[in-house]
Each structure stands twice: as C-alpha cells, then as structure tokens.
Amino acid sequence: MQNSLAIAKDFDVDLNMVYVIAAFHDLGLAVNREQHHYHSKIILLSDQTLLNFFTKDDINIMGKAVEDHRASNTNEPRSIYGKIVSEADLDLNAERIIRRILEFGMDVLKIDHKDVLLQEAQHHLKQKYGQHRKFNLWINHKNSQKALNDIQSYIDDTVLFEEYTNHLFETYFSPSN
User: Fold this and answer.
1) Alpha-carbon distance 46 to 91, whole Å?
2) What distance in Å separates the CA atoms of residue 87 and residue 118, rounded to the nearest whole number?
3) Virtual CA dihedral for 145, 62, 25, 81, nearest 10 degrees?
4) 131-153 pLDDT per residue, tens
5) Which residues form the HD domain (predicted)?
6) Between 50 and 138, whose confidence is greater?
7) Could you tell me which of 80, 91, 70, 77 has the C-alpha nearest to residue 18?
8) What's the rounded Cα separation, in Å, for the pair 153 and 162?
C-alpha cells in the first residue's frame, strides 16, 4: 500500500481507488498463487460494500487493475491504476533480494561453498533483474528505476557484488547473528 500510494502521488489518480486496489491485489493468494490475480479481482468485484464508496465504473477499473498487477504479466495493464499497483508490487530492495537469494541457496539448494553460492546468486540476480528480465516497469517511476539500477549494478560488477555479499554474510549469516 505504501509503495502504491507513494507512486500514485505523482499521477492524477484517485488515491482511495489506489488504496483499495493495493488492499485487494493479493487476496486471491488464499485460493492459489498461479491465478491469484484473477481470484483477487473476483473478490474485489464481489465486495458489495465498495458500492457505498465507488461507482460501478470505478469498481470495474479497480478489478481490472487488480487482475493486471501480476509482475509476470506480459500485457500492459489496462489503466494507470494497474500500472501503479504492478510497479508497486515489485520487490526492488537490493539487500532483501540478495539476502533471500543467498538464504535460498544455502537452505534449499544446500550450497555450502561460498564461491559457488555467490556465482549462483549473481546468476539468479541477472536472470530475474537483468536486461532480459521477465517483468516490466510499466510507468518507470523514478524510485523504481533507481532501485532497479542499484540491483543491476551488482549484476554487472562482480567485485561490487562480492563486497556487498560479504557485508550481507557478516550482517546476517555470521555465527554471532
């Protein structure tokens, strides 16, 4: 919600609608992950309380935005609202992303050699956030682009990546933590 509202402030949109879209966009996860965006739309459209605050047209716009928010969606969202929630929903925090990749490598893939782990982590980062990534920044908001640029700096610079991951190891994975 915070990300959506922060992005929305730069556009001529109804912040109440942005708030509702952000609140509903992942409710469909209770049904399943693969089609959660569709189920989230159904949940929003079924909420009769929204008629007390919004027009049917507004509710339809919000439903489409909820459905369109999925990062892996290759079709451009149908409204500025869908673009806002789609971009806001992306996790572009470099520290959190790299830490999760390292945790996955150690805990799930059982990689115990640090050099191999760093290679795998950098490779995964490149696949997910590199030039040929599977998501779009539909509105290319300044905060999102800066955050993506930060992540990409670790993809392109092996020395910087190693320095940063060493810092993360000391912060999160050392025996004293």
Assistant:
1) 28
2) 28
3) 0
4) 888 788 889 788 888 999 999 98
5) 4-89
6) 50
7) 80
8) 12
